[in-house]
Amino acid sequence: MFNKLLGTLTVVLLMASSAVSAEMKIVVLDPVRAILESDEAKVLIEAANKEMEPELDELRVAAEEFQTLQAKLQKDGEVMSESERRKAIKDLEDMQTDLQFGNQKLQKQTQDKRQEIIQAMAPKYEKVLNDLIQIDQIDLILSPNQIQYTNAKHDISRRVTEKLNEASE
């Protein structure tokens, strides 16, 4: 909240003076989007997804087993003995816990891989960004999550992605 307020206040103060706003070039940049939409990052993301595919398949199989046991309990629950029903419920609870843990583990791995990709591409991103700053004479770069509205013409994320793609060739 504070960062959003600070970002908005900065823009308002800069725009308050027409002389300042006429001289300054202000743009919006989403660095994560710019990096992750680049061709190189897409290749790295695809490789990471293939690497995590076995864990994802295991999770799918476990989810199917959970659903099968749940359906069996609903269908046959009334004819099961009390001990069988308790055991099935306990098994379902254990499976649900395992599924949640597996899902959290996979999400963490996905976040870690994404962060690795961003860090690996950071030097190229910095070079491309510095080049664009010099070429376009940019004075201020704002993050899209710090402002309420911006015209798309001020968003340079796509240009950064294109320059990253050119740098990879």
Number of helices: 6
- From the spread of the alpha carbons, the general shape counts as elongated
Largest sheet: 2 strands, parallel
Low-confidence residue ranges: 17-21
Distance between the termini: 40 Å
Could you give the count of β-strands? 2
Brief descriptors of the model:
169 residues, mainly alpha, two-stranded parallel sheet, 6 helices, 78% helix, elongated
Explain briefly what this protein structure is:
The chain is mainly alpha-helical. 78% of the residues lie in helices and 4% in strands.
Please provide a written account of the structure.
- The chain is mainly α and 169 residues long.
- The protein has one domain.
- Helix content is 78%, strand content 4%.
- The chain has 6 helices and 2 strands, in the order H-H-E-H-H-H-E-H.
- A two-stranded parallel ribbon has the order 1-2.
- Helix 4 packs antiparallel against helix 5 (82-136) and helix 5 (82-136) packs across helix 6 (157-168).
- The longest helix has 55 residues, at 82-136.
- It is elongated, with a radius of gyration of 25 Å.
